[in-house]
Structures are given as structure tokens and as C-alpha cells.
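Sample intake sheet
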Amino acid sequence: MKAELSRNLLDLALNRCFEAGEKKTSESVTKFNFVNDVLNLSTKGAYTYFEEKVAVIKCDQNFSICLKTAQVLDFVKYVSCEKVTLVFSQEKNSCILSAENKTKLVLQTVEQDIDDFNHSAYDCTFNFKDSNEFANKLKFASKFCSTNFQDHPLTAVHCSLDNNCMILKSTSGPSFYQSSLECELSSPFDFYIHQKSHTIIKNIFAIFEFNKCSVNKNHLVLENDFAKLKIFLESSNSTFPEQVTDWLSKTPDCVVKVSSHELLKSLKFLNDVFSNPNVVIKCEKGKLSLECLESNSASKDYIDIEELQGEAESKYSVKLFVDCLESLQSPWVSLNFIEMNDKFFLCKIIADKTTTLICPISS
């Protein structure tokens, strides 16, 4: 059984398989299924399934084998040629990869089931005007997920579909993220997606975007004419905690409009100079100041502001504040300080369709 493939096409496709598998190099396995001059590649990860179609130059008959992804990928990257030949011996359960009869690699096939799973109806289908926007916002939302279930139960990103809009929410307890993007959808639906999903989505669909999405209670599917990525969903409560979203509706006691670039510049300076710093942010007498104090060092910086209404003072984690500002991707932000009790101000940071919330640190 013999097939000839474009080395470049195989290289790109196997890279996407490897990204989707999200396993250790030695464990990742890809199924090569040759059907009617088309190669269907498929692989499974810890919480994903991926398949992609690759055109075949020549194939003498249909056949299917499983090989370790990294071994084939290393060979394809090593050789410099236009096409790769694959010869499978069913009797020996082995496969010979060759490049223009100059370089050869013999591999044993792997016994593994990599067929699609959970064939079930979907509760909602939807699509975005820009699929990259979904991946980018999912990336920022993942920064606000809890990394430890014991610290906070929400370790995934909550996605809510309704009124031709998707709202993404995540929280780790001390911080919160919410953003929205337009989409066309068939019906309302809520789900939680694994916080590492954005990396896989970005790496697989960096060149050719997905144009169709489907979801049910078990998995999310992103696909186009050539590929399909299926992601197992996280099991959690279908609704996001109301306590967090209720805070967003509270009237702020102090509002500051400031350049996110200048504020980030100052915060990153503190992060470089001090170890795990906390910063006291003061809004008073028409000025915004940042103060940081450690055992033998201290810093104070005044930030130019566009406008200021009210007064506030609280201490925050520099790292969390930087994450909040970077996730907004806006030249100007509005800092809304909400006093929960004496000298305990929540900071709600707003820019366009994105809102972040950070809790202060007790002095």
C-alpha cells in the first residue's frame, strides 16, 4: 500500500495535529486514513478531538494506519523535498517513509482508537464575523480563571450565547473579566470551556479561520471546509455567580479616565523593581498616584489623567492590575472605584465592550 504526499501540506497538517493532541511528545498519535485520494488525519488530546483533510498526490488503494505524531513530523521537517512517499506493510505492521529515495524512516504502526466520539445533536449553532476575535478574547478571559479548584471553583471560561451576542466571563475570586462579541446564533445556550482551549484554537486556526460553530452540553465544535476541532466542555453550574455580576451594577464612588499606556508603564516598572509588589492607588485633589513600599525601598509615581470625579484609596496586586489593563487592549480606560466598606474599594476597569474587576488587598 503506497501513497505520495506533498511534504509542505503534510508538515502543516501534522503541526496542527500535534497542537490539538496537547500530549507529551512520546504519547501523541495520529491516524492516517487514505480514502479516494484524500488523506484524513485525526488525533485525540486530553480534552480534544481534531481531524483535517489533506490532498494526496497519488494513492494505489484505501488504507488506514496510526503512527506516533512526533516521529512522522520530525522526519517531514528534516527532509528537503517536494513530496514524501509512505509505504505500509500490513503483514509487518510497519510503515516506510521516504524522501526521493534519499532518506528513509521505518516506523511500527500503533494500535489505537482515534475515531470521532459523542455523535449527538447540537443545541446551538453559531458563527462569528471574525473568529480570531473569539480566540483573542478567550485568551484574555483564561487569565482570570482560577488555577486551583480549592481556591475558587471556576477554573473555566463561561460563555453565554443570546441575542446574537456571546458574553465571556471568568473569575478567580480576586479578579473578574467580562467581554462580548457579535455572532449569529440559532438559539440561546450557556457553557464552560477549558481555560487552555484558546491556545489550541489559535494555533490550529491561525491560517484558515473556522466558519461554523456547534455546541451541546458535552462539547464545542469549530470547523471549516478542511478541518474540525472538537473540545470537551467543563462541567459546572450553567449560570455565572450572581454575586460577582451584581457588583458591576453598583454606582462608583470615584471615576478616573486615564491612559492605559502610562498606567501600564508605571505598574510594570514597579513589577520589575519590587518582588511580588502591591500598589496603593490614590485618587485625590485631582491627581492619581501609585505608591509602593517594601522593607528597604519605596516608590511614588503620579499619572497624568484626563478627568477625575470623587476620591478613593486602596491597595491592589500589581500583577492582577497589569492583567486587567492588558486584557482591555484600549488606549484609554475608565477606573471606577466602588467602596464596599471603609477604605475597601473594588476597582472596575472599563474599555469599550470589556470590563474587568479587581478586589483590593487588605493592608
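Comment: The longest helix spans residues 7-21. The mean pLDDT is 90.
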